[in-house]
Amino acid sequence: MIKRIGNTPIQERHKASCHCGAVVLELTLPDGVVDPRRCDCSLCRRRGAIVASVPLAGIRILQGEDVLRCYQFNTRTAKHYFCSICGIYTHHQRRSNPAQYGYNLACLEGVNPFELGEVPLLDGINHPADRLV
């Protein structure tokens, strides 16, 4: 549970936006940023984002729903949202837990994700949903 990143306190209701400001989200973060991580799946490797998660009800689109686009690949379970104007990935409905959104920490207002320090890496290449039971 991270309540401050650099000089920025993480608010219980914290705004996030894409680069151009067309997409604005409000995230409900009562415990701050919980379990930030990177992933090494083919998409995450390329976008390089640090993510954390909230329940689906934890993200509210305040502005720009009309410019958000969705990208799906492989199993088409996860839904990755990005601004169609500036191209910034803002959030995604998770494959490993479709009841949650992962969100791009770099989109949080006032947050520089490089101030987090060491960030754990998840093995997205060998996704848990791909393992035989």
From TrEMBL:
PROSITE patterns (UniProt xref): CENP_V_GFA (PS51891)
Molecular functions per Gene Ontology: carbon-sulfur lyase activity; metal ion binding
Organism: Aeromonas hydrophila subsp. hydrophila (strain ATCC 7966 / DSM 30187 / BCRC 13018 / CCUG 14551 / JCM 1027 / KCTC 2358 / NCIMB 9240 / NCTC 8049)
Pfam family, one: GFA
Residue ranges of domain CENP-V/GFA in the record: 14-130
Keyword Lyase: no
PANTHER family according to UniProt: CENP-V_GFA DOMAIN-CONTAINING PROTEIN, CENTROMERE PROTEIN V
Keywords: Metal-binding, Zinc
Protein name: Glutathione-dependent formaldehyde-activating, GFA
Superkingdom of source: Bacteria
Family listed: Belongs to the Gfa family.
